[in-house]
Amino acid sequence: MKPRFIPPWRSLIFLFDMTLIPHIALCNSNFSILFLLFTVMSNRLTEKPYLLSPFSIGLCYIPTGIGSLTGSICGGWVSDWSAKRFPRAIEGRLIFNLIGSFLCPLGLLLCGWSFHFNLHLAGPLIGSTLFCFGETFMFTSTSAFATIKKPTMAGTILALISSIGFLSSGIGIIVIIPLFKILKFGYLFSILAAIVFLLICISGMVIIFQIRKSNLTTTHSSILKTTPSSHALIDQSKDIIPIQLF
To answer: Is the pLDDT of residue 246 over 90?
Structure first.
C-alpha cells in the first residue's frame, strides 16, 4: 500500500468527537494551569514573606517534578489495571484516573489560598505537588485511551493534544496574569479550580454514558443469540432499553 499525504489540518476533526474532546479539554486545561502555576509561583516566592533566592526557588520545583514523575508512573499502571477491570468499554481505563485528577482542584485551592494568606512555604509546595501529580495521572491515561480508540490516527491525536496545550498555555498566561492584580491568588485559583472540577464532572458523565452504552450493547447481543424464535424476540424486546448514539 502506497503512502498518501494527509492534510495536517485533518486532525482538527477530532475536536468534534464528543467521546474524545471532554478528556482532551481536561488535560489541556490542567496543562495550561500548570504553566500558569509555574509562572506566578516563581514571582510570588521572591516577594514577602518568602523572599527566596533564585537557587532556593529552583529547589522548590523539585517536589513538583517528583509529583509529575510519580503521577505518570502511577497513572499508567492504574490505567492498565482499570482496563482489565472494565473490559467492555475502552473508557473503563479512565475511571480511576479521573478520580485521581480531583487532586488538581484540591492542589490549586491549597496553593492559591496559602499564597493569599502568606502561609508557610509548605502549603503552596504541597498544593503544587498535588496538582502536578493529578495532572500527569490523568494525562497518561488519556494518551493511552486516544491511542487505543484511534490506533491509525494515534500520533495525530497526541500531536493535537500537545499543540493545543501549548497554545492554550500561552493565551492563558497573557489573559490571566493581569487578573492577579484584581483577584489575587486565592480567588483566581478558586475560579481555576472550579473550571477544572466542572471539566472533570463532564468527562465523568461521558465515561459513564459510554460504559452504560457498551453494557447495553453487550446485553442486547446476548439476548439475540439466546432467543429461540422471532416471537420470543418480540416479547423480550419490551425489556430492552434502546441505545442512543452518542
So the answer is: no
